[in-house]
Specification:
The complex is a heterodimer. By secondary structure, chain A is an alpha/beta fold. Chain A has two domains: 170 residues, Rossmann fold (3-Layer(aba) Sandwich); 126 residues, TPP-binding domain (Rossmann fold), CATH 3.40.50.1220. In chain A, 27% of the residues lie in helices and 29% in strands. Chain A is built from eight helices and 18 strands. In chain A, helix 3 packs across helix 4 and helix 5 packs parallel to helix 8. By secondary structure, chain B is α/β, with parallel strands linked by helices. Helices cover 29% and strands 30% of the residues of chain B. The N and C termini of chain B lie far apart (56 Å). Chain B is globular, with a radius of gyration of 22 Å. Chain B has a nine-stranded mixed beta sheet with strand order 9-8-7-10-6-1-4-5-11, sandwiched between helices. Chain B has two domains: 202 residues, HUPs (Rossmann fold), CATH 3.40.50; 31 residues, no CATH class. Classes of the chains: A alpha/beta, B alpha/beta. Chains A and B meet through helix 3, helix 4, strand 7, strand 9 and strand 10 of A and helix 3, helix 4, strand 7, strand 8 and strand 9 of B. Strand 13 of chain A pairs antiparallel with strand 9 of chain B, so a sheet runs across the interface.
Chain lengths: 324, 252
């Protein structure tokens, strides 16, 4: 039997989420490194149609587990389905999304194997998966090796690239005998607001204690609007604790972990707990009138300036640029 | 209705983490250890359920070294009734091994709800809740910001990307708590005094070989050095930044 890297491809509402393509690309690289096959597994009600896209990103085979009981995400049933397909794989990976972090540990426990969560790098050394991940909110990093079958790892969303690399994507339907669901999804509530979710945004404009109050966030919202539909507004813990922004906007150790291409931190000092949440950002811009703010040591571009004077100017320049 | 809270003692979030020179971990001397902040939400929720029902016991169960007794006492001081330490010594423990030991301990009790934090702030693994639930063949809801118990069911609000799920599970179930679930109470002085007399059980356990091994510890990867954007006034700096973001970073 071929050595297999199995990728859990996450779908919600019948559509594959972006992190699935990031993970198939990663799985493809791991499989090539090991001299094995890259397969994907997708679970749901009517999901065979999703296989073609998974093939496009590098899956040789796509295992499809379809059942009416799997229409909504049910952790225990999805774990039964994925475990059945994954039990002989060398490696099982998936995104460290809300679903991945909920599901993959269940699958690992079911198969009596171990798992590395929230990885920012994954490489094969022979047949061993070496997973690189932060600990202590990023104050240190560890490399983990799993002695188990499969070796399970979850990749942090938006860190691994998604690259097309068309392979067969041959569909193989797998029938799994499922127990009764232990959880029932009663309702799915979408967050109000027309901006992209923080964990999926390409650009985040974030405000901290330096914003001085809730009304002042308007200038950050205007900048995000100017930057386009993939930009949104975040906040530091100080701003959330002060009641200026909702907890769902919080970036940091006790908030959300984000990995945008661009993170613009306004009036944020850069405490380590905040850095824990945005340290994976590709580019960091810091705007702070305190030249000694710790955030400047992490920023690619630092602006020592009064944010209330600078941000509106930046919005103006962005509008000019994007109008060209 | 009896509940249990899986609790881990961890370094305080402000602690400076120094790597051991022999590469085997971090230096524990001089570090302040506390109850994992996410587990505090679990203790608080368990206490609220007990208070609202007017009955039931809250047991804090922790796998750790002797040092963890202190963190269990914090939970008892908040109002929990019993503490159990599964003493595995100081060595590294992988989540699967820990989950197996916890599941065995929990199965022996009669807990309707098992709370834990969404993750421990030392290893940030976020695996214990779902793993324990799978090993006990019960449901688990993660990243929970609201819980409502009615009879033998719990309706939980769970955070997902861009929204929330409302999930109903039959009890017993594991609930992994997220910030926002409640405001954990401080231990009062009378609470601290009472805690000293509350039952605290210690069991020596051995975890066996860890299936997830840490093969290397390192300092965080360095980002390439950045630069200050200069300019005569905010407008000039803004123009310079936009140019850099477009031409150098290529992100806009």
């Amino acid at each position: 039997m071929a050595k297999e890297v199995l990728v859990f491809a996450e779908q919600r509402g019948g559509a594959l989420r972006k992190v699935s393509f990031e993970m198939v690309t990663t799985g493809r690289k791991l499989a090539d490194s090991m001299g094995g096959e890259c397969c994907a597994v997708v679970v749901g009600d009517s999901v065979s149609g999703l296989a073609a896209d998974l093939g496009k990103y590098g899956a040789d085979k796509v295992f499809v587990v379809e059942d009416a009981k799997l229409k909504d995400y049910v952790p225990d049933l999805y774990a039964q389905a994925v475990a059945e397909v994954a039990k002989d794989a060398k490696v099982l990976i998936g995104g460290a999304s809300a679903m991945g972090k909920d599901l993959l540990p269940r699958v690992a426990a079911r198969l009596d194997t171990a798992m590395a969560s929230d990885c920012v790098k994954m490489d094969m050394e022979g047949d061993s998966l070496m997973s690189f991940r932060p600990v202590f909110a990023g104050k240190a990093f560890v490399t983990i090796k799993v002695n188990g079958t499969p070796q399970v790892a979850a990749g942090r969303p938006k860190v691994f690239p998604a690259e097309e690399n068309a392979k067969a994507g041959a569909v193989e339907k797998v029938s799994v005998s499922l127990g009764d669901a232990k959880a029932v999804l009663k309702e799915l509530k979408q967050e109000a607001g027309d901006r992209v979710d923080l964990t999926e945004a390409d650009i985040i404009v974030s405000g901290g204690r330096g914003m001085k109050g809730p009304d002042e966030y308007k200038i950050l919202e205007e900048l995000a609007d100017a930057l386009g539909s993939n930009a949104t507004v975040g906040a530091s813990r100080a701003a959330v604790d002060a009641g200026w922004r909702p907890h769902s906007d919080q970036v940091g150790q006790t908030g959300k972990t984000v990995s945008p291409s661009l993170y613009i931190a306004c009036g944020i000092s850069g405490a380590i707990q905040h850095l824990a949440g945005m340290g994976s950002s590709k580019y960091i811009v810091a705007v702070n009138k305190d030249a000694d703010a710790p955030i400047f040591s992490k920023a690619d571009f630092g602006i020592v300036e009064d944010l209330f004077k600078f941000v509106p100017e930046l919005t103006g320049e962005v509008k000019k640029l994007l109008a060209e | 209705m009896n509940s249990a809270v899986i609790m881990k003692q961890v370094p305080d979030s402000e602690a400076l983490i120094k790597l051991a020179p022999d590469g085997t971990g971090y230096v524990k001397e001089g570090v302040k250890f506390v109850m994992n902040p996410y587990d505090e939400f679990g203790v608080e929720e368990a206490l609220k359920i007990k208070e609202s029902a007017g009955s039931g016991e809250v047991t804090i169960i922790s796998l750790g070294s002797e040092r963890a007794v202190e963190a269990i006492r914090t939970g008892l001081a908040m109002g929990a009734d019993k503490g159990v330490l599964l003493n595995a010594g100081e060595g590294y423990a992988c989540a699967l091994g820990v989950a197996n030991a916890l599941a065995e301990e929990l199965k022996a009790g009669d807990y309707k709800i098992i709370f834990c934090g969404k993750q421990a702030i030392d290893d940030d693994m976020a695996q214990i809740g779902p793993m324990v639930a799978e090993l006990m063949d019960i449901p688990c809801v993660t990243v929970v910001t609201a819980v409502e118990i009615s009879g033998d069911k719990a309706v939980c609000t769970r955070e997902i990307e861009g929204g929330k799920e409302i999930v109903e599970v039959a009890l017993p179930a594991v609930i992994a708590c997220q910030k926002g679930l409640n405001e954990p109470r401080y231990a009062s002085l009378p609470g601290i005094m009472k805690a000293k007399k509350k039952p605290m059980e210690q069991k020596d356990i051995s975890l066996g070989d860890a299936k997830a091994q840490i093969v290397k510890w390192e300092a965080p990867p360095e980002r390439p050095p950045g630069r200050t954007i200069e300019g005569d006034d905010p407008a000039a700096k803004a123009a310079a930044l936009v140019k850099a973001l477009r031409e150098e970073a290529k992100v806009i």
